[in-house]
């Protein structure tokens, strides 16, 4: 089963966000976190009345249960964007029918939301490396049966594949230690601007990577809008490549 397109796009939105009040939904694109806070405001208020405003385990648990459906709704535009791209032929649909593709993307979104709130409940919300590590490890654990199935199909050692993925994630997450908060703030601002103006084009480009020349300018505007953000993007990219190489040698 190929899940790379929708799964990778969901992880694009796992970004460092600016910490705020007692109840925030950190490390998501602000469009998503703001939507959850707005759509779930009454439930959050009710949880705070029950458990107080301090961000205790009880409050986080209440919010995680009450706001799960709202988070799904706030991210559903990604599913619709992927389906539009697939139906117009701009993105390859390896699953035959649009309904099969919808089922897959919605299933992945459900798993992502469940994983996010699991990590929301059990991690320090201000520690981005820890939080994103939790998300990556949990999603990888859920994907392991499919990875094993694909490895068997292609005649690849599944243990080797899992070793490579785990080491890449572990080393790659450490790359974010060298990126300052201003980088994520500006990146979030750039993403929000381009999604407001070119939402469908952004989704299509995120899936097709650099197959379309028009995507080069969009990614350049987002990830290289200033010399400072360009320098940190290059540094992050090089660090990620090194993580891939290191994982390959270790496994």
Share in β-strands: under 5%
Radius of gyration: 19 Å
Largest sheet composition? none
Uncertain segments: 16-21
The number of E-state strands comes to 0
Helical/strand content category: mainly alpha
Number of helices: 11
Residue share in helix: over 70%
What is the CA-CA span between the terminal residues?
23 Å
Element order: H for helix, E for strand: HHHHHHHHHHH
Summed up, the domain count is 1
Shape: globular
Q: Compute the average pLDDT.
A: 85
Protein described:
The chain is mainly alpha-helical and 251 residues long. The protein has one domain (4-250). Helix content is 76%, strand content 0%. The chain contains eleven helices and no strands. It has helices at residues 4-12, 30-39, 41-51, 57-66, 68-87, 98-122, 128-154, 158-173, 181-208, 213-223, 227-250. It is globular, with a radius of gyration of 19 Å. Mean pLDDT is 85; it is low at 16-21.
Characteristics:
251 residues; globular
Reconstruct the topology from this structure.
Blueprint: H1 4-12, H2 30-39, H3 41-51, H4 57-66, H5 68-87, H6 98-122, H7 128-154, H8 158-173, H9 181-208, H10 213-223, H11 227-250
What would a concise description of this structure say?
With 251 residues, the chain is mostly helical. The protein is 76% helix and 0% strand.
């Amino acid at each position: 089963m190929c899940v790379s397109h929708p799964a990778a796009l969901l992880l694009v939105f796992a970004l460092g966000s600016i910490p705020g009040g007692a109840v925030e939904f950190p490390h998501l694109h602000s469009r998503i976190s703001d939507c959850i806070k707005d759509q779930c405001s009454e439930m959050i208020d009710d949880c705070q009345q029950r458990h107080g405003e301090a961000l205790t385990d009880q409050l986080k648990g209440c919010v995680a249960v009450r706001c799960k459906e709202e988070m799904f709704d706030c991210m559903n535009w990604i599913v619709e964007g992927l389906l539009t791209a697939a139906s117009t032929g701009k993105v390859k649909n390896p699953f035959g029918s649009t309904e099969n593709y919808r089922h897959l993307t919605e299933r992945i979104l459900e798993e992502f939301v469940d994983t996010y709130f699991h990590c929301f409940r059990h991690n320090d919300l201000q520690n981005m490396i820890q939080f994103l590590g939790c998300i990556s490890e949990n999603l990888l654990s859920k994907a392991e049966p499919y990875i094993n199935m694909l490895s068997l199909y292609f005649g690849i050692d599944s243990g080797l594949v899992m070793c490579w993925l785990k080491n890449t994630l572990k080393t790659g997450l450490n790359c974010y230690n060298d990126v300052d908060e201003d980088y994520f703030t500006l990146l979030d601002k750039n993403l929000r601007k381009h999604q407001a103006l070119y939402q469908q084009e952004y989704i299509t480009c995120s899936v097709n990577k650099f197959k379309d020349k028009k995507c080069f300018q969009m990614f350049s505007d987002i990830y290289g809008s200033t010399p400072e953000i360009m320098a940190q993007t290059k540094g992050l990219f090089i660090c990620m490549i090194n993580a891939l190489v290191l994982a390959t040698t270790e496994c």
